[in-house]
Amino acid sequence: MEKIKALWHDEDGVTTVEYALLLAVLIVGAVTIWTALKGSIQTAVDAAGSELESPGA
Questions:
Q1: Closest residue by Cα to residue 27 from 38, 15, 39, 19
Q2: What is the pLDDT of residues 1-57, one digit of tens each?
Q3: What is the four-CA torsion angle of 50, 51, 54, 55, rounded to 10 degrees?
Q4: pLDDT score of 1
Q5: How far does the chain reach from its first CA to its final CA, in angstroms?
Q6: How many Å apart are CA 57 and CA 54, to the nearest integer?
Q7: Distances (CA, A) of 36 to 23, 33, 46
Q8: Largest separation between any pair of C-alpha atoms in the chain
Q9: What share of the chain is helix, strand, coil (3-state, %, to 5)?
Q10: DSSP single-letter state for residue 57
């Protein structure tokens, strides 16, 4: 019973879980932002490529 009480009050595992959840939230946010901006980034890269192919046009 003492081991169970010690594990219940141990905060090392809780900290690890908090960091894992924070990492998961950051990854989901990064994927969401990447998905939302993917079209705009592709358009900008295509425009830059076209400009480089035909300068001064």
A1: 19
A2: 887 777 677 777 778 888 999 999 999 999 999 999 999 999 999 999 988 888 665
A3: 180
A4: 83
A5: 81
A6: 6
A7: 20, 5, 17
A8: 81
A9: 90, 0, 10
A10: -
